[in-house]
Amino acid sequence: METAPTKWRTAQEIKILDTEDDLAKKAADCFLEVVKRSAQERGRALVALSGGSTPYPLYRQLSQSALNRQLPWQKIHIFWGDERLVPANHEESNSYQAMKRLLYLVPVPPGNIHRVNGELSHAEAASEYKSVISRFVEPGREIPEFDLILLGVGEDGHTASLFPGLYNPGEREDLVISVMSHYGNRPAARVTFTPRLINKARNVYFLVSGGSKARAVKNALSGEYDPLRNPTQRIFLDNGKAVWLVEKSAASLLGDG
Ligand code: 6PG
Description:
alpha/beta; 9 strands
């Protein structure tokens, strides 16, 4: 098995934060910087939020008035990098959690919030989401280029809903696919961005917190280069570096060689 190619590894920028709160504050600063720059340069900012609970402290930061007032919410379009196929107001819905903890609290226009329609069937939900996203492709470009994609990492090394041990049909050439993947007691039916779509983004941030993620972080950043087993290694930006914001306990195995 080849070691992680230098090219991949140098395409990852790692910042280790002392606490979950420091991680949230750093992520909020990066969010603000990227979104303001995108809105200034292109008149809009396409942002895809991750699922899971890691971003909750970030949502708290962004909903606080000091930061909130600085964001051009009218120009921000919100998507999700992956979503579980559950009803809109289901506790397991990534979009429901973000609505409750952030988007209902800030002046983002409802028409700028693009959630996956979790009530549809697998294939329909993926197909509908792909057509929504495709509306945002810039003239002369082949596929939409997100300004910011936030990604979580599971204990098993998955990211978005790209899970270890399998490449899903369509994962390499499509933009959005439906998957069935079991992780803990979370809903298995999902829709996810593909690496092809994620790798076109201008900015990708992995947010990782908690000692339970230490093995996955080590495998990704200092283990063998094996994108089948480490889905985060499928994320290899066409332009620029992916930034890993890692809370200290999640980075605790990085120095073990
Ligand atoms: C999902 C997520 C998933 C998540 C990681 C981390 O729908 O489950 O998108 O990719 O980001 O599993 O989840 P936590 O932040 O809850 O640890």
